[in-house]
TrEMBL record:
Residues 71-182 form the C-type lectin domain. It comes from the Eukaryota. Signal peptide: none annotated. Transmembrane segments: none annotated. InterPro entries: C-type_lectin-like, C-type_lectin-like/link_sf, CTDL_fold. Pfam families: Lectin_C. This is Lectin.
Amino acid sequence: MPSRFIRCYCCMYPLWAVALVKNDLLTLSKRVSSPPAPPGCPAPYKTFGGRWCLLVVVAAPDNGPGEPLVWNDARAKCGEANGALAVIDNHDKLQLLSKFIDEKYPAETKGGWTYFVGAQNVNSKWIWSNSADVELQSNLWVPSHPQPQNEISMLVPIDKTHGRRYIISNAPNTFAPGYICERF
């Protein structure tokens, strides 16, 4: 009986199997074929969604010492941590961050804490901290934002019970009790 090759792309990606049927003998070999894994995030960053290295910092916790800071100070703190203020250009990333903040900082969620992120208005053009253009029509922004007179961005809770957050624009001298850094 001639050899017959049957490819079976079964199991879960990234595993695949090739079955060789020869003279009623079944030999099954398994080969791992996966895309390169994202590099692990260096401490103190955490991996979100297997794609992003993020660090959520509460500079002024509800029950402890600390002071709110302005956007430029938050940007400098992220730089000290070898990162930049986070790019929030993706609904999945926003949802993962919101869930993490809700679980790790429930008092701050109920208190309506805000967090600086990396969109800024430079010469009338909104860009992210990684130099990518900001999608101004995105549903990640509060309606009517960003406003032309504002220069910086922050995440604000719209629903304090469930922590749903949106991005708003604000003046550069605005204070916030938290910020989110990202390693690219």
